[in-house]
Design brief:
Blueprint lengths: L28 H15 L4 E7 L5 H7 L9 E7 L10 H13 L2 H8 L3 H5 L4 H6 L11 H23 L1 E7 L6 H16 L4 E8 L7 H12 L3 E5 L5 H12 L2 E2 L1 H11 L3 H13 L3 E4 L2 E4 L11 H9 L4 H13 L2 E2 L1 H8 L3 H13 L3 E3 L5 E3 L2 H8 L4 H16 L8 H11 L2 H17 L3 H14 L6 H17 L3 H45 L8 H15 L1
Parallel strand pairs: 1-4, 1-5, 2-3, 3-4, 6-8
Antiparallel strand pairs: 7-8, 9-11, 10-11
Length: 558
């Protein structure tokens, strides 16, 4: 008997249980209406940043993916990107992903017009621009760092305005903004007023966990400033009511629920769509539901305790997968929210086709989904968190090291540097962790992302905290001072420069003392040799010999 189409005790065949795909969007009419109104305003030349806020699992990413609804996009072009919960995220990642979509598909002449005379500025961040335009760019004319950053922001604002004007309107959808880096937040803060000044038909829609914004100071500043300028629309996603929870469950199971099942799922899931879906999947996996009289009922042992949270619900379902599939998921989770089969296979030292079968088991269980780049991604970061929860610190370090080795075996590109730095730093590999963190920081500086550079340099310094390589520590401290200067944190810069000077001075004193010690030993040896040469064989010395000996120590000390 198929688990996907269980048979009820009355002999009727149950509807097929939805094991694959995604849950339907329910209970979001108010939020969709607010976004549609914001889009209408943007098309009239009043750009807005719409912030979809709510707790994990409430459906922010799903709403972002569903907007605009099918058939209602009209003349809008939609570009999508997102941040990730990883220290390996490069600067500006959400915008790089979104603009990368446009660059890959836009006709070269249209792209050239959108970039204008400063194409070389954005080509630093998006090297594919050069290949699309079949041009090689000279480095932009050198100007002070702050002016370089503003020049980049102007190029991005101009390109977004061009895209929106050429296509009628632009929807820029950016997911997981709570993890956005400082560079992304600062760019959005600059670009939104510029778009407003140009009356550009642009709607930026972002998803963000409202309980994590306080941990991201640049994001808090972005939200505050845009709200002050009346460029922010805050849309808070509420929990589902009992009727909406029932609609969600019925759509997932392709059949209505008995009152007690519907009540327990809603009460225990607390109206959180993702948690309720995980509870239902756990009930189906454990075959605790039967279909009779046109409804889903408990199988008679419904008093057993259900998982008490999202993480527990996911772990219950993970336990039903083969051990090999769980291990593949764990490696994938350490790689990140997104991952490639070849990297997981290299870490496991297994054939990629075999590993992909294990990954597909995770897809079938609803933990993973195919990604647009040919790899796979966890359907929700809470799933990834549940997979990681039982991994000990030492096991994680070993996996980070193996992942770093696998990535290093590939062609090392600028886009790969942050991942290499992240994994080798997490692995505690001092040499390569420092090397890649410094390289990533330098790349961030050239990309006008000084805050990201500062974070990378600090990671390198932490790895060197117990090292005796003083010259390298001094060099890292100087880089931290440079990055802090770029972001205007002059107190931090002064502190780091002073620390570098103090370490260099201490090292210089050590070298000087060693040199003096070596010199004293040399002088002592010279005195002994000279005495042997001037003393007569009888062992007696003349008065002139005694005078010379009395002067030797003074000469050596001078």
């Amino acid at each position: 008997m198929s688990r996907d189409a269980p048979t009820g005790i009355d002999g009727a065949t149950a509807p097929a249980v939805l094991r694959l795909g995604r849950a339907p969007l329910v209970g979001r009419q108010r939020e969709l209406a607010a976004l549609e109104q914001a889009l209408a305003e943007a098309r009239l030349g009043r750009p807005t940043l719409a912030l979809l806020a709510g707790e994990p699992g409430i459906g922010k990413s799903r709403l972002l993916e569903e907007f605009p609804p099918s058939g209602q996009s009209g003349d809008s072009i939609v570009l999508r990107g997102g941040a990730t919960q990883s220290e390996g995220m490069p600067p500006y990642l959400p915008l790089l992903e979104a603009l990368g979509e446009y660059i890959a598909l836009a006709p070269p002449d249209d792209l050239r017009r959108g970039l204008g005379a400063d194409a070389a500025v954005l080509a630093r961040l998006l090297p594919e621009i050069a290949s699309r335009l079949r041009e090689s760019f000279e480095p932009p004319h050198a100007i002070p760092p702050e002016q370089e950053r503003l020049r980049l922001y102007e190029v991005v604002a101009g390109l977004l305005s061009h895209i929106a004007g050429a296509r009628g309107s632009l929807i820029l959808a950016l997911d997981d903004l709570q993890w956005a880096d400082a560079a992304t937040c600062e760019l959005l803060l600059y670009v939104m007023p510029r778009l407003a000044a140009r009356a550009a038909p642009v709607l930026v829609v972002t998803a963000c966990r409202d309980d994590e914004t306080s941990e991201n100071v640049p994001l808090e500043r972005l939200i505050s400033e845009l709200n002050r300028r009346r460029l922010l629309l805050h849309v808070t996603l509420r929990r589902l009511d009992s009727l909406e929870s029932r609609q969600l469950a019925a759509a997932l199971l392709h059949g209505d629920l008995a009152e007690d099942v519907s009540s327990i799922v809603h009460d225990q899931g607390e109206g959180n769509p993702f948690f309720e879906e995980e509870l239902l999947r756990a009930l189906v996996d454990e075959r605790r539901l039967v279909y009779r009289d046109g409804r889903w009922h408990f199988d008679g042992v419904n008093r057993r305790v259900l998982p008490r949270g999202i993480i527990d619900a996911v772990r219950v379902r993970l336990a039903r997968l083969p051990a090999e599939a769980v291990e593949a998921l764990r490696v994938a989770a350490v790689v990140g929210r997104r991952h490639q089969v070849r990297v997981v296979a290299a870490v496991l030292e297994r054939d990629p086709e075999v590993v992909e079968d294990l990954v597909l088991a995770g897809v079938g269980a609803g933990f993973l989904r195919p990604d647009s780049d040919g790899g796979y991604a966890f359907v929700h970061d809470k799933v990834r968190e549940a997979v990681l929860v039982e991994l000990g610190g030492e096991r994680r370090r070993r996996l980070h090291l193996a992942i770093g080795n696998a990535l290093q075996a590939e062609e090392v590109t600028p886009r790969l540097l942050p991942d290499l730095a992240y994994h080798f730093v997490q692995a505690g590999d001092r040499q390569r962790g420092v090397d890649y963190a410094l390289a990533t920081g330098e790349a961030a500086l050239t990309s006008y992302a000084a805050a990201d550079a500062l974070r990378q340099f600090c990671a390198a310094l932490e790895l060197l905290s117990n090292a005796r390589d003083v010259p390298r520590r001094v060099g890292v401290l100087l880089r931290i001072g440079q990055a802090a200067t770029h972001i205007g944190d002059y107190r931090e810069a002064a502190t780091r420069y002073q620390a570098a000077a103090a370490e260099a001075t201490r090292q210089a004193k050590v070298i000087l003392l060693r040199a003096r010690g070596t010199g004293s030993a040399a002088c002592a040896g010279a005195r002994r040799t000279s005495r042997e040469r001037v003393l007569p064989s009888s062992g007696r010395s003349s008065s002139s010999d005694q005078e010379r000996r009395a002067k030797w120590p003074r000469r050596c000390s001078n």
